[in-house]
Amino acid sequence: MTDVMANVSCVSMRGRGVLICGEPGSGKSSLALALLDRGGVLVGDDGVSLEWDGTRILASPPPNTEGLIEIRNVGLLEVPATSAPVSIVINLAPDADRLPLGHGQALLIGREIPQVDLYPDTYVLAMRAEAALEIHGLP
């Protein structure tokens, strides 16, 4: 089963996919760009293809935007792209709990993936996303 998910970004961090969700203008592309700066590799910006491979959900770049990431007020930047198993969903939410007890769950193509809501307006967002991947993400 393959599904195209629009309005999301995804970055591979050490081979583990970080799927970034949020309202339009919440900073999905900015977080993806910051994760690229921290050593990540782009999977997709403003959309990804999701496929169940029998053991995990694999995120792949959609062909029409593969290797392109939007830099607000600058334009499109061409970068290398890859595929990665989705290990965590980061939901950018201005009302995210300050100190949650654990993580939530996102349902992607019929499978549950750990989800962490993060407050989007902070200069340490990329570090928080990486910490969420390490603490709550699937191996």
CATH architecture: 3-Layer(aba) Sandwich
Tally of domains: 1
How many H/I helical runs? 2
CATH topology: Rossmann fold
What is Rg?
A: 14 Å
CATH hierarchy class name: Alpha Beta
Mean pLDDT: 95
The CATH superfamily name is P-loop containing nucleotide triphosphate hydrolases
Secondary-structure-based class equals alpha+beta
Helix content: 10-25%
- Report the strand count: 11
**Strand content of the residues, in percent?**
35-45%
Domain HPr kinase/phosphorylase C-terminal: 9-81
InterPro entries: Hpr_kin/Pase_C, P-loop_NTPase
Protein name: HPr kinase/phosphorylase C-terminal domain-containing protein
GO biological process, one term: regulation of carbohydrate metabolic process
Description:
By secondary structure, this protein is α+β, with helices and mostly antiparallel strands. It has one domain: Rossmann fold (3-Layer(aba) Sandwich), CATH 3.40.50. It has two helices and eleven strands. It has helices spanning 28-37, 125-136; strands at 2-6, 9-13, 16-22, 41-44, 47-52, 57-60, 68-71, 75-78, 84-92, 104-108, 111-118. Strands 1, 2, 3, 4, 5, 6, 9, 10 and 11 form a nine-stranded mixed beta sheet that branches. α1 (28-37) packs across α2. It is globular and about 40 Å long. The mean pLDDT is 95. It comes from Aurantiacibacter marinus. This is HPr kinase/phosphorylase C-terminal domain-containing protein. One of its GO terms (biological process) is regulation of carbohydrate metabolic process.
